[in-house]
Amino acid sequence: MQYAQWAPHYERIRLEFGFPSEREEAAAALLETLLPPPARADPLGRIWPLLNGREAIVVGLAPDAGPPPLWRRPATGPTPVLIAADGATATCLAAGLVPTLVVTDLDGPVPSEVAANRRGSLVVVHGHGDNLEALAEWVPQFPGELAGSWSGPPRGPLLNVGGFTDGDRAAFLAEHCGAARVILWGFDFDRVDASDGHERSRKLAKLAWARRLIGILANEGRSPVLSWQKDGSLEPYREGKSGASTK
């Protein structure tokens, strides 16, 4: 999805959650300064060849989902590209799977993302108004290839091809870069791990947007979006059907 298509959706999100635009700008400016020189160069140009024409499996962190059962995918054809959404990186590594890409805003188990980066994962770090401290702490610790993203218009080293939470940002990135299919594994929009009532409500509101946005991507994008079921079947993504945590 192009930024011009995405921007009206994010403006509604920004107003609903009260995200101050000046904080978003501050996060973008900080991330730009923290990225090493190679990470500032042509982020989409580096990511595109990893996804174009390939089957992209986006891994979320739904309770009890576990790692994606890649042995169930056909053995013929190109190897699928594994994209871990934030905390799902640890799930993948525990199963011996190194994601090709990790999409994160650094609010999960970041050491596992650093470990994946050391083992070859390209990590797409997202800067927003609530993670300035995490950016400052963690971005300098990644030893491997990085790219940056933020919520505003693409600028220099920072991309934005749509998406709000880590999981749907990963799906939007796969579609934008020409994935043959986007397959969702381990997504759940209805359950969160927060005990505080306010935090729980806020997380559920974010997941409601994630569900809606992936529906928009499925309807308007160029790549088919499929949900990978526990029985091994693939179903076209349907917004009203649960079965997908994006953090």
Considering the chains and any ligands shown, give keywords for the structure.
single chain; about 250 residues; alpha/beta; sialyltransferase cstii, chain A; nine-stranded mixed beta sheet; 9 helices; disordered C terminus
Structure explained in plain terms:
The structure is a single chain. The chain has helices at 3-17, 21-34, 37-40, 43-51, 88-94, 110-118, 132-138, 166-176, 197-220; strands spanning 55-59, 81-85, 101-104, 122-127, 146-150, 158-159, 181-185, 225-228, 234-236. Strand 4 (122-127), helix 7 and strand 5 (146-150) form a beta-alpha-beta unit. Helix 8 (166-176) runs parallel beside helix 9. By secondary structure, the chain is an alpha/beta fold. The protein has a single domain, classed as sialyltransferase cstii, chain A. It has a 9-stranded mixed sheet with strand order 6-5-4-3-2-1-7-8-9, sandwiched between helices. The two termini are 21 Å apart.
- Biggest sheet record: 9 strands, mixed
Distance between the termini: 21 Å
Weakly predicted, low-confidence segments: 242-247
- Given helix and strand content, the structural type is alpha/beta
Number of helices: 9
